[in-house]
Design goal:
six-stranded parallel beta sheet, 347 residues, five-stranded parallel beta sheet, Rossmann fold, single chain, alpha/beta, 12 helices, 37% helix
Protein backbone atom coordinates (compact mmCIF):
# COMPACT_ATOMS: atom_id res chain seq x y z
CA UNK A 1 0.00 0.00 0.00
CA UNK A 2 1.23 3.50 -0.86
CA UNK A 3 2.26 5.96 1.82
CA UNK A 4 -0.20 8.53 3.24
CA UNK A 5 -1.59 11.27 1.01
CA UNK A 6 -3.08 14.66 1.99
CA UNK A 7 -5.14 16.79 -0.40
CA UNK A 8 -5.46 20.42 0.68
CA UNK A 9 -5.54 23.28 -1.83
CA UNK A 10 -5.60 26.76 -0.38
CA UNK A 11 -3.72 29.92 0.47
CA UNK A 12 -0.35 30.17 2.19
CA UNK A 13 -1.87 30.40 5.67
CA UNK A 14 -4.01 27.31 5.04
CA UNK A 15 -0.97 25.23 4.23
CA UNK A 16 1.00 26.50 7.21
CA UNK A 17 -1.79 25.20 9.44
CA UNK A 18 -2.11 21.86 7.62
CA UNK A 19 1.55 21.10 8.31
CA UNK A 20 0.32 20.01 11.74
CA UNK A 21 -1.72 17.26 10.04
CA UNK A 22 1.21 16.24 7.85
CA UNK A 23 3.53 16.07 10.85
CA UNK A 24 1.09 13.88 12.79
CA UNK A 25 0.53 11.49 9.89
CA UNK A 26 4.28 11.20 9.38
CA UNK A 27 4.70 10.26 13.05
CA UNK A 28 1.75 7.86 12.92
CA UNK A 29 2.72 5.94 9.77
CA UNK A 30 6.50 6.33 9.95
CA UNK A 31 6.61 7.35 6.30
CA UNK A 32 6.74 10.62 4.34
CA UNK A 33 3.35 12.11 3.49
CA UNK A 34 2.62 13.02 -0.12
CA UNK A 35 0.63 16.22 -0.70
CA UNK A 36 -1.70 17.52 -3.41
CA UNK A 37 -1.98 21.29 -3.21
CA UNK A 38 -1.97 24.51 -5.25
CA UNK A 39 -0.06 27.77 -5.56
CA UNK A 40 3.45 28.68 -6.64
CA UNK A 41 4.50 29.05 -3.01
CA UNK A 42 3.46 25.49 -2.06
CA UNK A 43 6.57 23.61 -3.12
CA UNK A 44 9.14 25.99 -1.56
CA UNK A 45 7.09 26.08 1.65
CA UNK A 46 6.50 22.34 2.00
CA UNK A 47 9.51 20.65 0.40
CA UNK A 48 11.99 21.42 3.22
CA UNK A 49 9.56 20.40 5.96
CA UNK A 50 10.03 17.23 7.94
CA UNK A 51 7.79 14.35 6.90
CA UNK A 52 6.78 15.76 3.50
CA UNK A 53 7.11 13.37 0.58
CA UNK A 54 6.17 14.03 -3.04
CA UNK A 55 4.35 17.29 -3.74
CA UNK A 56 1.74 17.45 -6.52
CA UNK A 57 0.42 20.87 -7.51
CA UNK A 58 -2.77 21.80 -9.35
CA UNK A 59 -3.73 25.17 -10.76
CA UNK A 60 -7.40 24.26 -11.06
CA UNK A 61 -9.69 21.58 -9.64
CA UNK A 62 -12.84 23.02 -11.19
CA UNK A 63 -11.90 22.89 -14.85
CA UNK A 64 -13.51 19.94 -16.69
CA UNK A 65 -11.22 16.93 -16.36
CA UNK A 66 -11.14 16.12 -20.07
CA UNK A 67 -9.96 19.66 -20.85
CA UNK A 68 -7.23 19.80 -18.21
CA UNK A 69 -3.98 18.00 -18.99
CA UNK A 70 -2.61 18.88 -15.56
CA UNK A 71 -5.43 16.99 -13.83
CA UNK A 72 -4.95 14.06 -16.18
CA UNK A 73 -1.21 13.99 -15.46
CA UNK A 74 -1.90 14.04 -11.71
CA UNK A 75 -4.26 11.08 -12.01
CA UNK A 76 -1.59 9.12 -13.92
CA UNK A 77 1.03 9.85 -11.26
CA UNK A 78 -1.35 8.81 -8.47
CA UNK A 79 -2.14 5.56 -10.27
CA UNK A 80 1.58 4.86 -10.62
CA UNK A 81 2.22 5.46 -6.89
CA UNK A 82 -0.65 3.19 -5.91
CA UNK A 83 -3.62 3.66 -3.63
CA UNK A 84 -3.01 4.41 0.02
CA UNK A 85 -4.65 6.07 3.03
CA UNK A 86 -5.75 9.56 2.08
CA UNK A 87 -6.91 12.61 4.03
CA UNK A 88 -9.09 14.87 1.92
CA UNK A 89 -9.09 18.34 3.53
CA UNK A 90 -10.94 20.60 1.07
CA UNK A 91 -14.36 21.57 2.36
CA UNK A 92 -15.84 22.37 -1.06
CA UNK A 93 -15.43 18.87 -2.46
CA UNK A 94 -13.45 20.04 -5.49
CA UNK A 95 -10.93 17.44 -6.57
CA UNK A 96 -12.54 14.52 -4.76
CA UNK A 97 -13.38 12.90 -8.09
CA UNK A 98 -9.69 13.03 -9.05
CA UNK A 99 -8.93 10.63 -6.22
CA UNK A 100 -11.55 8.19 -7.49
CA UNK A 101 -10.17 8.44 -11.03
CA UNK A 102 -6.74 7.60 -9.60
CA UNK A 103 -8.07 4.37 -8.09
CA UNK A 104 -8.17 5.60 -4.48
CA UNK A 105 -11.35 3.98 -3.17
CA UNK A 106 -13.65 5.88 -0.84
CA UNK A 107 -12.84 3.33 1.90
CA UNK A 108 -9.26 4.64 1.90
CA UNK A 109 -10.29 8.27 2.39
CA UNK A 110 -10.94 10.36 5.50
CA UNK A 111 -12.99 13.32 4.27
CA UNK A 112 -13.08 16.57 6.24
CA UNK A 113 -16.71 17.05 5.24
CA UNK A 114 -17.62 14.02 7.38
CA UNK A 115 -16.10 15.59 10.50
CA UNK A 116 -18.43 18.09 12.23
CA UNK A 117 -16.87 21.29 13.52
CA UNK A 118 -16.68 21.64 17.29
CA UNK A 119 -17.72 24.94 18.90
CA UNK A 120 -14.82 27.38 18.89
CA UNK A 121 -12.53 24.88 17.17
CA UNK A 122 -9.35 26.18 15.53
CA UNK A 123 -8.20 24.75 12.21
CA UNK A 124 -5.11 23.17 13.80
CA UNK A 125 -7.31 21.45 16.38
CA UNK A 126 -9.41 20.17 13.53
CA UNK A 127 -6.39 18.86 11.60
CA UNK A 128 -5.17 17.05 14.72
CA UNK A 129 -8.58 15.37 15.00
CA UNK A 130 -8.33 14.47 11.30
CA UNK A 131 -4.89 12.92 11.86
CA UNK A 132 -6.39 10.59 14.48
CA UNK A 133 -9.02 9.28 12.04
CA UNK A 134 -8.48 5.95 10.31
CA UNK A 135 -9.85 5.23 6.81
CA UNK A 136 -12.51 2.47 6.88
CA UNK A 137 -10.29 0.12 4.86
CA UNK A 138 -7.66 0.13 7.64
CA UNK A 139 -9.89 -0.22 10.71
CA UNK A 140 -9.23 -3.97 11.00
CA UNK A 141 -5.54 -3.25 11.57
CA UNK A 142 -5.27 0.47 12.32
CA UNK A 143 -1.96 2.32 12.62
CA UNK A 144 -1.00 3.57 16.08
CA UNK A 145 -2.61 6.73 17.41
CA UNK A 146 -0.68 9.93 16.67
CA UNK A 147 1.30 11.49 19.53
CA UNK A 148 -0.30 14.14 21.72
CA UNK A 149 0.88 17.64 20.81
CA UNK A 150 -0.04 21.29 21.22
CA UNK A 151 -2.55 22.64 18.73
CA UNK A 152 -0.03 24.85 16.95
CA UNK A 153 1.71 24.76 13.60
CA UNK A 154 5.50 24.73 13.91
CA UNK A 155 7.89 25.83 11.16
CA UNK A 156 11.63 25.26 11.51
CA UNK A 157 13.81 26.77 8.75
CA UNK A 158 16.43 24.43 7.32
CA UNK A 159 20.06 25.36 6.66
CA UNK A 160 19.37 26.37 3.07
CA UNK A 161 16.60 28.75 4.07
CA UNK A 162 18.72 30.27 6.83
CA UNK A 163 21.59 30.83 4.40
CA UNK A 164 19.24 32.42 1.83
CA UNK A 165 17.92 34.79 4.50
CA UNK A 166 21.39 35.81 5.67
CA UNK A 167 22.41 36.55 2.08
CA UNK A 168 19.25 38.63 1.60
CA UNK A 169 19.90 40.61 4.78
CA UNK A 170 23.52 41.23 3.79
CA UNK A 171 22.49 42.45 0.34
CA UNK A 172 20.16 44.98 1.94
CA UNK A 173 22.56 46.02 4.69
CA UNK A 174 20.30 44.63 7.41
CA UNK A 175 22.54 41.99 8.98
CA UNK A 176 22.29 41.93 12.80
CA UNK A 177 19.57 44.60 12.82
CA UNK A 178 16.43 44.50 14.95
CA UNK A 179 13.60 43.98 12.46
CA UNK A 180 9.89 44.80 12.74
CA UNK A 181 7.70 43.75 9.82
CA UNK A 182 4.31 44.94 8.55
CA UNK A 183 1.97 43.08 6.18
CA UNK A 184 -0.80 45.43 5.02
CA UNK A 185 -1.86 43.71 1.80
CA UNK A 186 -3.62 40.45 1.04
CA UNK A 187 -4.70 38.62 -2.10
CA UNK A 188 -7.85 40.73 -2.34
CA UNK A 189 -5.72 43.89 -2.42
CA UNK A 190 -4.35 42.73 -5.77
CA UNK A 191 -7.78 42.23 -7.35
CA UNK A 192 -9.58 45.14 -8.96
CA UNK A 193 -8.62 48.78 -9.32
CA UNK A 194 -9.70 50.06 -5.92
CA UNK A 195 -8.25 48.80 -2.66
CA UNK A 196 -11.12 50.12 -0.58
CA UNK A 197 -14.06 48.21 -1.94
CA UNK A 198 -16.69 46.06 -0.28
CA UNK A 199 -15.08 42.75 -1.32
CA UNK A 200 -11.73 43.66 0.26
CA UNK A 201 -12.76 42.99 3.85
CA UNK A 202 -9.11 43.12 5.00
CA UNK A 203 -8.40 46.65 3.77
CA UNK A 204 -7.16 48.99 6.49
CA UNK A 205 -6.46 52.59 5.39
CA UNK A 206 -2.93 53.64 4.52
CA UNK A 207 -3.06 56.59 6.92
CA UNK A 208 -3.78 54.22 9.82
CA UNK A 209 -0.87 52.00 8.85
CA UNK A 210 1.29 55.11 8.73
CA UNK A 211 0.27 55.98 12.31
CA UNK A 212 1.18 52.49 13.50
CA UNK A 213 4.54 52.57 11.72
CA UNK A 214 5.35 55.91 13.38
CA UNK A 215 4.39 54.52 16.79
CA UNK A 216 6.67 51.52 16.34
CA UNK A 217 9.48 53.80 15.14
CA UNK A 218 9.12 55.94 18.27
CA UNK A 219 9.24 52.84 20.49
CA UNK A 220 12.17 51.21 18.67
CA UNK A 221 14.31 53.96 17.15
CA UNK A 222 17.12 51.51 16.39
CA UNK A 223 14.98 49.01 14.43
CA UNK A 224 14.76 48.56 10.68
CA UNK A 225 11.10 48.51 9.61
CA UNK A 226 10.03 46.25 6.74
CA UNK A 227 6.90 46.57 4.58
CA UNK A 228 6.27 43.05 3.27
CA UNK A 229 4.23 41.76 0.36
CA UNK A 230 4.28 40.43 -3.17
CA UNK A 231 5.19 42.64 -6.11
CA UNK A 232 1.59 43.79 -6.66
CA UNK A 233 1.54 45.23 -3.12
CA UNK A 234 4.54 47.49 -3.68
CA UNK A 235 2.31 50.48 -4.52
CA UNK A 236 0.26 50.01 -1.36
CA UNK A 237 3.47 49.92 0.67
CA UNK A 238 4.75 53.07 -1.03
CA UNK A 239 1.59 54.91 -0.01
CA UNK A 240 1.99 53.68 3.57
CA UNK A 241 5.62 54.81 3.60
CA UNK A 242 4.57 58.29 2.49
CA UNK A 243 1.90 58.39 5.19
CA UNK A 244 4.39 57.24 7.84
CA UNK A 245 7.17 59.65 6.90
CA UNK A 246 9.83 57.87 8.95
CA UNK A 247 13.43 56.88 8.27
CA UNK A 248 14.80 53.36 7.86
CA UNK A 249 11.55 52.03 6.42
CA UNK A 250 12.11 49.43 3.69
CA UNK A 251 9.55 48.48 1.05
CA UNK A 252 10.59 44.89 0.25
CA UNK A 253 7.42 43.81 -1.59
CA UNK A 254 8.26 41.52 -4.49
CA UNK A 255 11.68 40.62 -3.06
CA UNK A 256 10.64 37.90 -0.61
CA UNK A 257 10.63 34.35 -1.99
CA UNK A 258 9.39 31.77 0.50
CA UNK A 259 12.92 30.50 1.35
CA UNK A 260 13.73 34.06 2.51
CA UNK A 261 10.35 35.07 3.97
CA UNK A 262 10.11 32.10 6.30
CA UNK A 263 13.41 32.54 8.20
CA UNK A 264 13.13 36.34 7.96
CA UNK A 265 9.88 36.31 9.93
CA UNK A 266 11.41 33.83 12.35
CA UNK A 267 14.09 36.34 13.30
CA UNK A 268 11.86 39.43 13.40
CA UNK A 269 11.24 41.22 16.68
CA UNK A 270 7.53 41.29 15.75
CA UNK A 271 4.99 41.49 12.93
CA UNK A 272 1.86 43.62 12.52
CA UNK A 273 -0.38 42.14 9.85
CA UNK A 274 -3.84 41.69 8.46
CA UNK A 275 -5.20 38.14 8.62
CA UNK A 276 -3.11 36.60 5.84
CA UNK A 277 -0.36 34.05 5.12
CA UNK A 278 2.74 35.80 6.56
CA UNK A 279 0.96 36.12 9.92
CA UNK A 280 0.72 32.32 10.07
CA UNK A 281 4.34 31.91 8.97
CA UNK A 282 5.50 34.29 11.70
CA UNK A 283 3.34 32.84 14.48
CA UNK A 284 4.45 29.29 13.65
CA UNK A 285 8.01 30.45 14.44
CA UNK A 286 7.22 32.11 17.78
CA UNK A 287 7.37 35.64 16.35
CA UNK A 288 5.03 38.02 18.28
CA UNK A 289 2.28 38.78 15.78
CA UNK A 290 -0.48 41.39 16.02
CA UNK A 291 -3.24 40.44 13.60
CA UNK A 292 -6.12 42.61 12.36
CA UNK A 293 -9.23 40.62 11.45
CA UNK A 294 -12.10 41.67 9.22
CA UNK A 295 -15.04 39.26 8.92
CA UNK A 296 -13.20 35.95 9.42
CA UNK A 297 -13.61 34.11 12.72
CA UNK A 298 -10.43 34.55 14.82
CA UNK A 299 -11.26 31.44 16.86
CA UNK A 300 -10.89 29.36 13.69
CA UNK A 301 -8.14 31.28 11.87
CA UNK A 302 -5.95 32.65 14.68
CA UNK A 303 -2.40 32.67 13.22
CA UNK A 304 -0.36 29.59 13.92
CA UNK A 305 -2.75 27.85 16.29
CA UNK A 306 -4.28 28.28 19.73
CA UNK A 307 -1.15 28.95 21.80
CA UNK A 308 1.16 31.03 19.61
CA UNK A 309 2.35 34.54 20.62
CA UNK A 310 -0.44 36.40 18.84
CA UNK A 311 -2.68 39.35 19.66
CA UNK A 312 -5.93 39.27 17.69
CA UNK A 313 -7.84 42.49 17.05
CA UNK A 314 -11.39 42.78 15.73
CA UNK A 315 -13.69 45.72 15.18
CA UNK A 316 -17.26 46.56 14.32
CA UNK A 317 -18.95 49.21 12.23
CA UNK A 318 -22.68 49.72 12.76
CA UNK A 319 -22.81 46.50 14.74
CA UNK A 320 -21.20 44.31 12.07
CA UNK A 321 -17.66 42.82 12.07
CA UNK A 322 -15.43 45.24 10.19
CA UNK A 323 -11.67 45.80 10.21
CA UNK A 324 -12.33 49.54 9.91
CA UNK A 325 -13.56 49.45 13.50
CA UNK A 326 -9.97 48.84 14.67
CA UNK A 327 -8.04 51.98 15.64
CA UNK A 328 -4.29 52.60 15.34
CA UNK A 329 -4.18 53.23 19.09
CA UNK A 330 -5.59 49.75 19.74
CA UNK A 331 -3.02 48.17 17.41
CA UNK A 332 -0.11 49.97 19.06
CA UNK A 333 -1.29 49.08 22.56
CA UNK A 334 -1.69 45.42 21.58
CA UNK A 335 1.80 45.46 20.03
CA UNK A 336 3.36 46.97 23.17
CA UNK A 337 1.69 44.48 25.49
CA UNK A 338 2.41 41.45 23.31
CA UNK A 339 6.07 42.22 22.73
CA UNK A 340 6.62 43.05 26.40
CA UNK A 341 5.00 39.80 27.60
CA UNK A 342 6.91 37.76 25.01
CA UNK A 343 10.19 39.33 26.11
CA UNK A 344 9.41 38.50 29.75
CA UNK A 345 8.49 34.90 28.90
CA UNK A 346 11.87 34.44 27.20
CA UNK A 347 13.65 35.76 30.29
Amino acid sequence: MARPLVMRCGALGDMVLVTALIDQLHARFGAPVDVITSGGWARPLLAPRRGVGEIHTLRSRRKPYWLDREQQALVRRLRERGAGPTWYCDGGGHGRELLRRAGIADALVCDTRDLPWLPGEHFVERWLRMAALTPPALTASPPPAPPVRDANAVLVPDSGELAACEAWLARRGLTDRTLVAFQAGNKRTMRGLFRRRASNTKYWPEARWGTVVRGVRDALPEAALLLLGVHEESGLNADIARAAGVRDLHNVAGDLPIPVLLPLLGRCHSLVSVDTGPAHVAAAQDCPTVTLFGVADPARFRPGGVGTPVAVLTGTVEGEPDILGITPAAVLEAWRQLTASHRQSKG
